[in-house]
Specification:
The chain is α/β, with parallel strands linked by helices and about 425 residues long. It folds into two domains: about 160 residues, Lyase, Ornithine Decarboxylase, Chain A, domain 1, CATH 2.40.37.10; about 170 residues, TIM Barrel, CATH 3.20.20.10. Helix content is about 30%, strand content about 25%. Strands 4, 13, 14, 15, 16, 17, 18, 19 and 20 form a nine-stranded mixed beta sheet that branches. An eight-stranded parallel barrel has the order 5-6-7-8-9-10-11-12, surrounded by four helices. The longest helix is centred in the middle third of the chain and has 19 residues.
Amino acid sequence: MHHFEYRDGQLFAEDISIKDLVKEFDTPLYVYSARTLRRHFQAFDSAFEGISHLTCYSVKANSNLCVLKMLSEMGSGMDIVSGGELFRALKAGVDPRKIVYSGVGKREHEIREALIAGILMFNVESRQELEKINQVAGEMDMKARISLRINPDVDPQTHPYISTGLKKNKFGLDLEQALESYKLARDLPHIEPVGIDCHIGSQLTSIEPFIEALNRIKKFHSRLAGLGIAIKYLDLGGGLGITYDEETPPHPVEFGKAVKEGLQGLDLTLILEPGRVIAGNAGILVTRVLYTKQSPSKNFIIVDAAMNDLVRPSLYGSFHRIDCVDQKDAPAYKADVVGPICETGDFLAQDREIRQVEQDELLAVFSAGAYGFTMSSQYNSRPRGAEVMVDGDKVTLARRREVYFDLVDLEEQCF
């Protein structure tokens, strides 16, 4: 149960009718469930009870300040990949000592900002980045805590675009490169190597790739100990999948049990970076049917949400369950659910078995809480929809709907 359920034939988010939310906030509309976010965080974090650990929510999954603030108040740290995400995390009140900074392309000013903030550590992805961090820290007369991201060459068995732990991926360093970089880090005057980082991919539905990666990291950890490099943290990344369609990802308890068994005998603090598994099923996208039409070979449902609102189906061919906000007994048929954008790739679903709908009906696109609004854009000069947070019978406007002036606000100086 994700606190989106039907009551008397109408879809509710916790104790609030989706139709009532639409009356106030219009469509397209992102709706998040606070109870679901809390439950998912607690389920994940508690799976690692009994060992020293820090759960750092992956900000890129859903970076709304309401989401970040709520998770921070529950004790969550944050995994960030940009200066903007650092700004958001600090704005939300996150303890900087619970922030880890990942990503392959950190700019000099971003490194400086993170050092000023006093983050826990940088997850470093290249030798040149290591040298740049040392340079910036030296200019600031500081010492930067780092881990190096290990690319263990483990197949995560996920979509190639969200696979990150293979040799051909842009992320991290292979084991031998990493060993040489740790030797360099040990000797650089403004670097303190404190951790090992590994992230093999997203939307994983099996524990085996995690355990394979962990076993390779443990052997690597022994090699570092032989070089006199004292590692305090093991960052195992995120990537645990959720159910969009018929996937059966492992429960966090099962994942936690396997990882804890794998870490026995190691005096390390485990860092985890869940994102999708916390936020994915905690949000829906609500959209209105504008028109329906039939071609000789296709049925089309044209809605007011588009690929600029939710790009995952166009980008990855991802499945999101789509259902009517008002339950109905209408016959089902196959149709493409498409948006108003001038791209053939603008669709939310293709050849989907769906109830026949009429103009002005509302549809809910489920499992849209992660990589939904955060990947949205203003393509075709479309103002982005609002985000609301529902907590029981309380509704918070988490982000107002954009208006036309927002489209040109940064360009006004041209006139």
